[in-house]
Amino acid sequence: AKVAILISGRGSNMVSLLEAARAPDYPAEIVLVASNRPDAPGLARAAAAGIATEAVDHRAFADRAAFERALDESLRRHGVEFLVLAGFMRVLTPWFVEAWAGRMLNIHPSLLPLFRGTHTHVQALAAGVRLHGCTVHFVVPELDAGPIVAQAAVPVLPEDDEDALSARVLVQEHRLYPAALALVASGRARLDGGRVVFAEGS
Ligand code: GRF
After folding, report:
1. 186 lines ligand 1 (CB under 6 A)
2. Rounded CA separation 10/49 (Å)
3. Is 108 a catalytic site residue?
4. What is the pTM of this model?
5. Residue 87 burial (CB < 10 Å; 0-12/13-18/19+)?
6. Which of 3, 105, 174, 191 satisfies CB 3.0 to 4.6 Å to 16 for a cystine?
């Protein structure tokens, strides 16, 4: 399956996906890395890895809808079938989300449904939870609310600060996202009537 990764920043999850997709039996091929920020460090890293890149600068468009139409056109031009959001920092309109329904994944750095939104590690420390982690979910119009494909948990340690905790979670993100994309791209996990249906043994 042909996959595009959407980023806005450093792209460490993107790198882990590109590395996983190099395996000959991996069920997804990364055909494009696109960013709404032309200066995203991840774009240069993707280009260096020989992947097609595209910058669709949201500031160049009159509104969200015009930006998304341009992004959608570029994705279709590259024959993209699945979309993976990896640190992509634009809220998507219901039009775009519906156009890619069941074919768009996001990774969120918390054990959803806890701690939606930003600063999830600060939220976790403030709440005093002893387990934290990351979630890969299908994207629906409501932010960080989509059906869950996969999760990984890490302990919260007494001496943790935001940096220590986010680093521990990030290690798991880099493992979880390639595994979750493999499930979806191979059809072993799919969205059906608002729920994720898993193939036997997945
Ligand atoms: C990750 O923590 C991801 O979960 C969140 O934004 C961060 C992106 O990091 N949505 P990177 O750009 O993949 O390094």
Report:
1. no
2. 14
3. yes
4. 0.97
5. buried
6. 174
